[in-house]
Backbone:
């Protein structure tokens, strides 16, 4: 990549559209070199029957529209496992085929949002979890082939770092729905030893909180969706004396419950693994630069909005010396933004290696 230096590809004529794509478990975001930014909920649905079809007037519904009509559609969250699922031997292929089809619908819907001209060549950088396998990466390329002319896959936390100009001595912690990815930067493309992927992330917090809520609020049915909404409104970690009081419908009337302890416990459930992975990445770093690394810890992804998280991470890492933890300003677009920047910076010679063979 170094040969022509950054910006060489920027001599593009108007026929090339660069896009950064973050195919997340819960949200898919795209940012384009024409300044378009869009986010779509990563869910795809098919009308359940003839009535649903008559009512929706569509073969497939995508994103929030799908959630709005959840009673009328069979829904799939195709990125639910953080990456594409390899089918265990012997398992019938039906479910997987549906998942693959859902991914295709989602990806083509998002690429359409980039408003490319018909003659424009689309070059995409796509984010994937830090420790995605070569098969996962290839599956992502396959999903966009036919829609773009060139595609490259890079790890999500690396893309976040790239978008924030954090090229050296920085540790990125991207807290998504399906995975929590850590990546340390040291002035070059990070290798396997620089990255970790944990599967306890936002979805794990949701199911934990859901379980605790059901135990507490036994006189009102609680859905996972309700638990997630409450989490997204109030999520916190810390020993602050705040009280989270939420109303639930009991016998048609609102009844207030204190869910502070349940929410704290659920949010804190991702901390131990996250802290121990961060420690591992710090202590195995070149000792001369560990100090600087600790000063550059950045939280990103939707989960970075948990209140008090930065302070909690900082205080758990101070045993090695002073730390500074910040939160990416725009956690939702940080991945897509970094992907777009990498796409526009990549020289022509590098892009040639990522042409999709027709
Ligand atoms: N205010 C908030 N507080 C805590 N968590 C939040 C908040 N807002 C969103 N989240 C959570 O952030 C997660 C979504 O973040 P993000 O969009 O970064 O994930 P993703 O990219 O779709 O997932 P992944 O990177 O694992 O594929 C969800 O679990 C969501 O519930
Ligand atoms: Mg993500």
Residues:
């Amino acid at each position: 990549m170094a040969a022509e230096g950054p910006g060489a590809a920027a001599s593009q004529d108007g026929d090339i559209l660069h896009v950064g794509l973050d195919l997340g478990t819960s949200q898919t975001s795209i940012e384009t070199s024409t300044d378009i930014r869009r986010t779509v909920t990563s869910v795809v649905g098919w009308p359940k029957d003839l009535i649903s079809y008559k009512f929706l007037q569509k073969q497939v519904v995508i994103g929030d529209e799908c959630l709005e009509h959840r009673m009328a559609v069979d829904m799939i969250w195709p990125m639910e496992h953080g990456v594409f699922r390899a089918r265990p031997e012997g398992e019938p292929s039906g479910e997987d085929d549906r998942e693959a089809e859902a991914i295709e619908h989602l990806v083509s819907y998002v690429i359409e949002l980039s408003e490319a001209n018909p003659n424009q060549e689309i070059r995409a950088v796509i984010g994937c979890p830090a420790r995605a396998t070569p098969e996962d990466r290839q599956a992502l390329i396959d999903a966009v082939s036919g829609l773009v002319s060139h595609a490259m896959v890079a790890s999500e936390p690396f893309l976040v770092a790239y978008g924030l100009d954090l090229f050296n001595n920085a540790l990125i912690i991207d807290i998504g729905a399906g995975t929590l990815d850590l990546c340390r930067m040291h002035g070059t493309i990070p290798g396997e030893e620089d990255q970790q992927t944990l599967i306890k992330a936002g979805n794990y917090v949701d199911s934990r909180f859901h379980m605790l809520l059901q135990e507490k609020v036994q006189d009102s049915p609680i859905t996972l969706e309700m638990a997630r909404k409450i989490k997204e409104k109030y999520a916190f970690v810390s020993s602050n004396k705040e009280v989270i009081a939420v109303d639930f419908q009991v016998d048609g009337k609102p009844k207030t419950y204190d869910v502070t302890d349940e929410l704290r416990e659920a949010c804190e459930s991702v901390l131990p693994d996250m802290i121990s992975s961060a420690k591992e990445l710090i202590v195995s770093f070149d000792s001369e630069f560990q100090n600087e690394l600790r000063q550059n810890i950045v939280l990103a992804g939707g989960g970075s909005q948990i209140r008090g998280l930065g302070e909690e991470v900082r205080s758990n890492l101070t045993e090695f010396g002073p730390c500074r933890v910040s939160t990416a300003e725009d956690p939702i677009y940080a991945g897509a933004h970094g992907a777009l920047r990498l796409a526009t910076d990549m020289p022509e010679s590098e892009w040639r290696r990522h042409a999709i063979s027709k």
